[in-house]
Amino acid sequence: MSLEILSQASITLISASLSLVGGLALLLTYVKIPEFQTSVHRLLVFLTIADILTAFGYIIGTVNFLTLNDDQRNTTDPMCEAQSFITTFSSLSSFGWTSVIAIHLYLLIRSHRNFEKDRLVKAWYFTIGWIFPATITTVVLAIKKLGRDTHGQQAGTGLWCWIKLDYKDNRIHPSDIRLMFISGKLWEILTYVLSFSVYMLLKIATFLERQRNSNYSWGRVKGTDLRDEDERFCFTWLILYLLRLWGTIRFFFAISGDGSNQKITNADNILKYFHCAGDCAQALGNFLLFCVFDKNIRKKYGEIFCRYRYDRNQNVLLNTSESTNYQTTFRIRRKENDAMLM
């Protein structure tokens, strides 16, 4: 096995594992800390579930690749197909929920209405975040196009599987390019544009409000359950962009069809490593942004940790006290028994 493959596998597994832990920590934060349980954080939970599935899928795909021999790596096995289904669905879902969060925040700020109890809006959110991605992924699975890219350039992937490319002519056909856009890249690019545009509008609106009222903050918007710290959501598009940009550049390198250009090949070889690190790391990025970098949440972490240590010490003291009492009682009864025998 080449050093290049081992390096890519190591980066992917480390990044995906950290993202998995970060995503689970964010979910635990939502469950344990009431201040985190707002409508927009509930949407963040759905986004995090999608990102956890992505990280989990990349771990499966990478481990599966490492267990195969050279001949098997040029075919699509059942595990590869299953992993492709998971990560294609979860990636589409992640794009959907990122867009939903942007739209939801814009509606909250501009209309001063919380849409938490609006069933029609919630139905649209779930359609964009879950149903639409599941439909696209199921159709691609049904036409047997989920699998391994064996044409030599790994268009848009690392060691994991996505769209099956196994033609003898070593080319990416136009039909496959359309399929790759429909099953991921088109919605990814639209998410970049939509999220950036909406958040810039929100930043401009917030700036203008603060020009009129210096005390203005998102936490003071009437009719919503926003916190001041929720302005951090304006950076979710940036996390998505910085983490997935490398794979998108590699995708366009691959579909350009100019495999003979040495500069593109060299750039692609470097971008592979950024691609392996970034594509599965969004859950970790969101955990850092919304939990670790939020001083109020960090304070809550400290309180929970101190409470845990206090409870643990109390249990130790209680167990020690009970043990001491038991030993004392045992000695007294033994002395009484000895006195009776005498």
Task: Please outline what is shown here.
This protein is mainly α and 342 residues long.
Using only C-alpha atoms, the radius of gyration works out to 26 Å
Biggest pleated-sheet summary: 2 strands, antiparallel
The strand order across the widest sheet is 1-2
The total beta strand count reads 2
> What form results from the Cα inertia axes?
globular
Low-pLDDT segments, ≥5 res: none
Secondary-structure element series? HHHHEEHHHHH
Through-space gap between termini: 82 Å
Please state roughly what percent of the residues sit in beta strands, choosing from under 5%, 5-15%, 15-25%, 25-35%, 35-45% or over 45%. under 5%
> What is the helical fraction, as a range of percent?
over 70%
Class computed from helices, strands and strand pairing: mainly alpha
Tally of contiguous helical segments: 9
What integer is the average pLDDT? 85
Features:
mainly alpha; 342 residues; 9 helices; globular
